[in-house]
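User: What would this chain look like folded?
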Amino acid sequence: MKVNRRNIATSRIEILMQRAEAVYSRDKPLADRYAALAKKLSMRHNAKFPHKWKRRICKKCGKFLVAGNNCRVRTHKNRVIITCLECNNVVRIPFK
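Assistant: Here's the prediction, encoded as structure tokens.
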């Protein structure tokens, strides 16, 4: 049975992001490194980044985001506003 490289990359991305979440409280630079590796793996193999992890990486500085620690999450006028406290990047996501 042939295994698709994108499927392998997606499963590896999932593992890296779970490890980043687990290690964040003890070692923030290691969590950032795991997130960077996951993003690079996604780009290299043209694999989709899992939806539940997509907003957990800052698009500007690449840090692993944890609400309340290094990012602020607010709602305003039918939008979710995520602010990275490392680089002050703001992402506005509309919702209904």
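The first helix runs from residue 5 to 23. If you want, I can go into more detail on any region.
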